[in-house]
């Protein structure tokens, strides 16, 4: 009885595995990527989108959106010991460069306590803030700015 149950279980597992994974190769042939090439095709990287030239602050599209960066940041050093962004955006220097100062929210710890320096959680700017590019959407969409921001 035990041998029969074991054989039945193995047969069932094999059937389910084949049914689940057996058709994957055929299915992969039908999948098309947004770049127009087969998913498993080796393609050269597409050129990076053009970063818009330095300019005024970019309007936000939804509440709590981190501000977008209106300039190039390629080559900016942001390490645990140095943050290039602070050369212009620190409270002590933002007026000199006509830059946006770092938000007060960046000087709070996770419990809401005020800090004398930028919170380590907010120190690596490019985790949230990104440069604006002229990249076109990959797919059509009907995105609209948040009602209160129009």
TrEMBL record:
First and last residue of the signal peptide: 1-25
A molecular function (GO) term: metal ion binding
Principal location class: periplasm
InterPro entries in the cross-refs: Multihaem_cyt_sf, NapB
Processing and modification events after translation: Binds 2 heme C groups per subunit.
Keywords: Electron transport, Heme, Iron, Metal-binding, Periplasm, Signal, Transport
Positions bound to heme c 1: 71, 85, 88-89
One Pfam family linked to the record: NapB
Subcellular location: Periplasm
SUPFAM superfamilies, sorted: Multiheme cytochromes
GO cellular component: periplasmic space
Tree of life domain: Bacteria
GO aspect biological process, one term: anaerobic respiration
Protein purpose: Electron transfer subunit of the periplasmic nitrate reductase complex NapAB. Receives electrons from the membrane-anchored tetraheme c-type NapC protein and transfers these to NapA subunit, thus allowing electron flow between membrane and periplasm. Essential for periplasmic nitrate reduction with nitrate as the terminal electron acceptor.
Assembly behavior: Component of the periplasmic nitrate reductase NapAB complex composed of NapA and NapB.
Protein family: Belongs to the NapB family.
The protein, known as: Periplasmic nitrate reductase, electron transfer subunit
Naturally occurring in which organism (per UniProt): Aromatoleum tolulyticum
């Amino acid at each position: 009885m035990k041998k029969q149950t074991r054989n039945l279980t193995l047969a069932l597992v094999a059937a389910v595995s084949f049914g689940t994974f057996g058709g994957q190769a055929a299915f992969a042939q039908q999948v098309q990527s947004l770049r127009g090439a087969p998913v498993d095709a080796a393609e050269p990287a597409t050129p990076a989108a053009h970063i818009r030239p330095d300019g005024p602050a970019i309007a936000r599209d939804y509440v709590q959106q981190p501000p977008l960066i209106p300039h190039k940041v390629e080559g900016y050093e942001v390490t645990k010991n140095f943050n290039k962004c602070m050369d212009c955006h620190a409270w002590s220097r933002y007026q000199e460069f006509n830059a946006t100062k770092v938000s007060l929210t960046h000087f709070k710890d996770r419990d809401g306590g005020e800090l004398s320096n930028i919170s380590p959680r907010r120190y690596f700017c490019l985790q949230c803030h990104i440069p604006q590019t002229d990249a076109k959407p990959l797919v059509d969409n009907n995105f609209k700015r948040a009602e209160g921001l129009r």
